[in-house]
């Protein structure tokens, strides 16, 4: 199997941590700041950070639209925290994002900062369905100003929940999580995404 090529949107946020996790999961990793850097990618990670900042930084080069187009052509996407917000089809408190393009493509409704402020950050054990390998132990999930997934569409599969709410979901070639899987040494969710992206190469 050829090595999957995964980009990390590098406008802001935990870019280096995602790159390390993806490399340890067997991907060839590059950073993306401009549409041309999306060429040839099998998958793209959109990290956490601040969705409003990322949308503003992407606007002058129309990067959000370019990501959406590449995804429509088959590129897989993994959105974490702010990244998930940018992929959500609907945001409940979207005032700060008004007038800015987002990626879309994930049939969920999210509420920004739904788990509270920076001071309310927490880590919790999560059982995630469908992870590769034989290690079935919970993944330690770090939540920082995390978005709440208020509802999901019929095509969306919930792969992990926290207190009866979905916090990791999958819809076709989109994976998304409310938390920060790049901040812990457990890279099983990144492995899962690299396999998802690789499916296109082998099929
Ligand atoms: N609350 C942030 C936003 O709205 C996301 C926080 C995060 O990515 N850790 O973009």
From TrEMBL:
It holds the Pfam family SNO. Signal peptide: none annotated. GO terms for molecular function: pyridoxal 5'-phosphate synthase (glutamine hydrolysing) activity. L-glutamine binds at residues 49-51, 112, 144-145. Gene3D superfamilies: 3.40.50.880. Its EC number is 4.3.3.6, 3.5.1.2. The keyword Lyase applies. Pathway: Cofactor biosynthesis; pyridoxal 5'-phosphate biosynthesis. It comes from the Bacteria. NCBIfam families: PLP_synth_Pdx2 (TIGR03800). Catalyzes the hydrolysis of glutamine to glutamate and ammonia as part of the biosynthesis of pyridoxal 5'-phosphate. The resulting ammonia molecule is channeled to the active site of PdxS. Belongs to the glutaminase PdxT/SNO family. This is Pyridoxal 5'-phosphate synthase subunit PdxT. It comes from Nesterenkonia lutea.
